[in-house]
Amino acid sequence: MKVKDIVDALNLKVLAGGDGLDREVKGVYTCDLLSWVMSHGKQNNAWITVQIHPNIIAVATLLEFSCVIIPENIEVEEATLNKANDEKIPVLQSNLNAYEICIELNKLGV
């Protein structure tokens, strides 16, 4: 499944990284502790986190994540969005909480 398919299915808002919407999503990882994510996340994961600082884009790039999903309409720092655009990492925003996003992604077969 492509990031753009998830955006459409979950009615997500694309905050940045629109050039990466064709990335393939093969799994989901939900965690807010960056060091833990770096040691457990997998390539092509959609990452759900409440973290909003630029370091999330560094981690997403390092692990080759498909996208970052920010729950509960949390406002994301401008520097983070600029870095996401530079790295072509989609940053998506949802009004759902992390648990609800996971449920919906599971329904989609991700």
From TrEMBL:
Domain of life of the source: Bacteria
Gene3D superfamilies on file: HprK N-terminal domain-like
Descriptive protein name: DRTGG domain-containing protein
Annotated DRTGG domain residues: 5-107
InterPro entries named in the record: DRTGG, Ser_kin/Pase_Hpr-like_N_sf
